[in-house]
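Bit of a strange request maybe. I'm writing a small parser for structure token strings and I need a real example to test against, not something I typed by hand. Could someone generate the tokens for this chain?
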Amino acid sequence: EDDAIAVIDKPAGLVTHSNPRQRRGTVSDLAVARYGELPEVQGDDRPGIVHRLDRLTSGVMVLGRTQAALESLKAQFKARTVAKKYLAVVHGTPRFDSEWLTGAIAPSVKSPDRMRVVAEHLEEELIEAGEARTASTLIERIEDFGCASLVSAKPRTGRTHQIRVHLQHARLPIVGDRVYGAKGALKNPLPAGAPRLERPALHAHELSIDHPSTGERLTFTSPPPADITALLTALRPKSG
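Reply from user aminoacidic:
Good idea to test on real output. This should exercise your parser:
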């Protein structure tokens, strides 16, 4: 933290900013309690916020402490110069060591609070109508456990639930995801001793920005939290 920004390691379960279902106890509230009044660029009740993580996603976030810092960060996100890297434990194994997932994303027809990858032949029509948005995520395989894999996800765009939806569409649903997770019996289930996650095994691992005041390129890293670390330990072959 300095006079312009604060970088935090958000735990899973903490909401980024207020919403109709939760008005208090958010990242914004905690930031105001620590720093005092903060500017807003993302609408009312979002002081200090320029980007968000889902409630159940853990990891690194940057907050702006001044109007100039927030405007700079907002411009960086818009220009896509901010680099984000997530870690995810998924069911199955990616087909390639790395792959771009590029399906356009739109709200679900049945559940507007959920998202979906639209059919390829409808992409252009729905994007032109403003009903879908382009999205791209680079997936890289890090570790293969047979029944599951550890992958990195680098989203180029920032759509709602983008990584979770893209991985589900690629038949690599995130372990523990109750909304976009695996449906029915798994062909290769997790080992009996693997811990049951109460949230998606998705973690914002790395964030790179240009400092709003100095222009220096900075990279912040958050190690995987205890629940994901325990899952990875259970999935890795035992030595000896």
